[in-house]
Amino acid sequence: MEFVTIGREVHSGYRIPLFFTEDESCIENTVSLSRWGFILIEKGSGIISSGGLHTPFTSPVVLCINEKEVVKLSSPSDISMKSVYFDPLVVNSKFNFENVRHAHTDFSATEEQDLYLLQPFIGSGSKSPGLFTIDTANAQHITKLLRQMNQTLVSQSNFHWPCRARSLFLEVLILLSKLIHEEESPPEEDADPNDIANQVLVYLHTNYSNKITLNELSRMFHMNRTTMNHQFFQLTNLSIIDYLVKYRVQIAATLLRDTMLPISEIMERVGFHNTTHFWRMFKRHTTLSPSSYRKQNCWM
């Protein structure tokens, strides 16, 4: 098996090195496949072995493997996992297995932003794979995105299916990079990971495509708007709405430069349902309109 998706009728013969599997019996050998692996273990426990190290885990976790790592799953108990095997060029056609590991002055600023999404695979090193514990809500959101990606790869229903499949995987990588960054950031003194601000943050990361208002969040988390916003600001240095808009624009910018999906589709995907508002917020954060940003930064 090549672990590649091949176009049938629409883009017949087109080969995209992006492949989804729900095989729960093993983790594929990425060395022999010349692929990277993104594995979501959404249920169960076991031991991840690589480079002589054996790391026990309890779900949900994400495992990021590069093409130089041999990783094995042992002592599995009630495991349920979803895996994506891919080539880094799926993120940006300029990337290959070698140049992503070294600083290149010929990478543009936006290419560096794309490269940041691959750090969990590059930075995992040769001694142990990148194993990241995540919460249930984020695991469920990643599962949803991966299922949509697989459905797109299987159905190949219209002209944009390669970009749409890649865009869903990009959303997964953006979320993972956010979760890792937050995990590595030093916590505030007496910070409680279960406090309302953290719960709101998880909600934003998993529901950004929906309409979200402070009144809705206030009712959902049983806290008045002012107190909730104050706690959230202490955690992120941004108000709830400012954080939400910034996250939506980050995803939109990635999809604009790394896919050719219609701008209207991207706008809806990230939770903007008014064109004027989307253009105004996008320009506020990037200094460019969405169309100008794509014209200046899209590599496709």
TrEMBL record:
Residues 198-296 form the HTH araC/xylS-type domain. Pfam families: HTH_18. SMART domains: HTH_ARAC. InterPro entries: Homeodomain-like_sf (IPR009057), HTH_AraC (IPR018060), Tscrpt_reg_AraC-type_HTH (IPR020449). GO terms for molecular function: DNA-binding transcription factor activity; sequence-specific DNA binding. Keywords: DNA-binding, Transcription, Transcription regulation. PANTHER family: ARAC-FAMILY TRANSCRIPTIONAL REGULATOR, HTH-TYPE TRANSCRIPTIONAL REGULATOR EXSA. This is HTH araC/xylS-type domain-containing protein.
